[in-house]
Amino acid sequence: MTLQEFKASLQQKTLPTDLSPALQALWQAGKGDWNTSHVITQAASDKDAAWVHAYLHREEGDLNNAGHWYRRAEQPVSTQSLTEEWDAIAAALLAKS
Hints:
The chain is mainly alpha-helical and 97 residues long.
């Protein structure tokens, strides 16, 4: 799936099939469902989910907690806009899948 296809899927009501937990969480965040996205990232234990988890806490303005999750993801703390970061995470995770 390309980034454009992933973003277009946000217009659908249901989650695309065969997405990793991190991409599922990012999709939910893209739909504006922070709580579902957070639940997914909390249940996953990999670095990709930690990266999305960091994004979520940055989105809510909890930068200390975000910093913890960026460290767990082994990613630098983002200084991009939230939209740019969402795109960057999506592109990186899609490239791995």
